[in-house]
Amino acid sequence: MSAKAAMESRATTAHPDVAQLMRQYGCGPIQFTGNDGLYERHLLFDNVQDEERMGARERFEAAARSIRDVLSQRWVLTEKTYEHENAKRVYYLSMEFLLGRSLSNNITNLLFSRIAEQIEKEKKIDFFPIQEEEPDAGLGNGGLGRLAACFLDSMATLQLPATGYGLRYEYGIFRQVIEDGWQKEQPDNWLRIPDPWEVIRPHERVEIKLNCSFELHDGMLRAVTGRPSFLYGIPFDRPIVGYGGKTINTLRLWAAATADYFDFQKFSSGDFVGALTETLAAESLTRVLYPDDSTSMGKALRLVQEYFLVACSLADLVRRFRRNNSDWSTLPDKAAIQLNDTHPTLAVPELMRILLDDEHLEWEQAWDITQRTLAYTNHTLLPEALEKWPVEWFEAIMPRHLEIIYEINRRFLGSVRERFPGDEGRVGRVSLIEEGLKRNVRMANLAIVGSHSTNGVAAIHSELLRTVTVKDLAEMYPDRFNNKTNGVTPRRWLLLANPALSGAITEAIGDAWITDLSQLKKLSSLADDKGFHKAFLKAKRDAKVQFATWLKTTTGQIVDCDTIIDCQVKRIHEYKRQLLNALRIVVLYNRLRENPNLEMAHRTFIFAGKAAPAYRLAKLIIKFINNLAGTIDGDPTVRERIKVLFLPEYCVSMAEHLIPATDISNQISTAGYEASGTSNMKFMMNGALTIGTRDGATIEMAEEAGEENFFLFGLTAEQVADSRGWYNPWWHYQNDPETRAALNMIFSDYFSRNEPGVFEPLRETLLTGGDHYMHLADLNSYLDADQQLCTLYSNPDAWARKAILNIAGSGKFSSDRTITDYATEIWKVGSCPIPECGVK
Ligand code: 26W
To answer: N or C, which end of the chain has less CB nearby within 10 Å?
Structure first.
């Protein structure tokens, strides 16, 4: 979305002018633009080329550099203030930060949109291709990584002294291309061209000791045990601009490097090439993000990555703590460390190691400090996603940490036996070590035992976590368990992504919603206002046109803006049930084929999402959707009325274009399986209606908007659990003609004429294998809800009314609310405002 458009959305707000802003940001008399302005200087001096020959990439870099210049002084002042105030800080540890683009976001948050618009006008430059030059920072798989990015935005906006810690992957989430309907992965070399936002801080490097070395074998990095080595963690900092530009926090990403003198012995013994190869190997540690969402792949290198993140981050924050403090017992008053899922759980033994071995504290004191400093968030209940690492890898890579884990476990199991004498079954279940032929460390148990807070990410999820998944642990520590329903940042997902709607909202209720989303409640009183219906419908239409234009220019694909846009965009996974959506479309297709005169609203069904490269069924689902799209396109009786599109390479930037244009949001996971979902919230605040199951945060969304404004269907989590024993998909096949016809079509190669049998595995998953995710059980109620939605669409005022009530009810789902809850209930951290910049 162009900065210009974002600007227009705020037309009713008094905006400071450029000189005023530059003063606020401490830039004094420096000009942003003009012959001697930052932008022109960067364009010329960074490129040393004639302006005529400068392309979009050069312009992007100059714009990004100028914006970075503008924020630099406040960035420095932010850190200085935290240091000076010795404020309690939040450290958010995450293996993933799915940031997307930064230029337009930073322009928006610095209130520079109007200035960007002026420049566009005066210089007659089009901002769109310049923005398109910025690669998405795709350092995450999906929900968990994007949540971390939204949290950074909210923490900075709420002026919390917070730092994000992650890894600087050279390759982010793979790029998805579709060939012949199949997903193919390509490397995402996003740092090929230098990134203008990052600031490398070689002087703040940290040294990490490991009990292993690395070797490259056939292009694969392998940990070689028994050969101790050390690595450097080099920090690369990125600015996180709070809305209004008052606070500029830091996201610190670590890159692995070896010391120049590391291979000194090898050099001198003559193995020149070998020594250099080893350097290359060690530096490969942070080369690539593991592209697995919801399955723990059990790769030793991933464990080392997790350790590297934890060791670098703790060394860094402990160093900072020691600069201002001498008493270790005050660490929990100065630092709150949040673990984003179990991936950084090694923080438990690592902090213990620092306190015991480096600082020589007694066990009891070290343990008390560790627990009071750490807190853990769980993001999934799927058993295959719960991390477990072989004990033998710990022995090989970090034996001291294993020793500490054993001692934690010995003491912990002692307390369990004391409380539940004779209950050895319970002891086995809660133990940090899974016994068996292969012994494993259970990372979730370690995170729960080693911290003071464990939270889920939506009410139902937190409840299931507490009462089912880790029931025995929750009985040991009932006070530790709590819920923090997820949220998303309204800056990126409404203000920036949807200028048309945010303009209409601001016009109606003012712009306080940007930093207080609960203000949207005020829109309820306009739910029956015909004028506001019109404004909403026009905004939706504008967003559709914007999206269609973007799609056409970037991919060549065509979307008809006069159709209902019905979307399901998220990672491809059986539990998310893209297959259920596809079955719905097959049934609708059959209805149209059987009765070409059937009245049915014209629709565009859009799918997008990546499958984990090794997840074969997920890849087959993508293939099926593409074949379904092809078959419908090739059928003249229906192609004018329904269209299926699979958009390749789903990413943050695509979501920003697609979500505002959507009429219907599909949130159709098997109830009890989606921890929260966050795209559901983005669709809701952008005025889509939700068709969904009672799962994750969708339940709370319906509560907020009123169930009558939602299209909920299907089995509840309780019903899913209760029917596990006797559920039989064949019953639906035999008793429901539409279901049977749809399945028979798939199995008779109707959608795969030239690839007979290709969809056989779908028979296994939907019928013979027992339909674990209960697609067939929910298909009919899905179709009923779908019918109601289509009927509603034919009445634009009735549709607008419900959509407006949805927007009005979406205030709870701002990540500002979520972060305020974390800050007050878990972190006990308050804001630390940054003083005004002195005018130079
Ligand atoms: C180790 C392999 C692995 C990698 C990532 C296992 C599990 C994960 C994540 C926990 C998966 C994930 O992203 N979970 C999603 O987290 C979102 C943010 O809380 C929720 O909204 C989604 O419902 C949840 O699936």
So the answer is: C
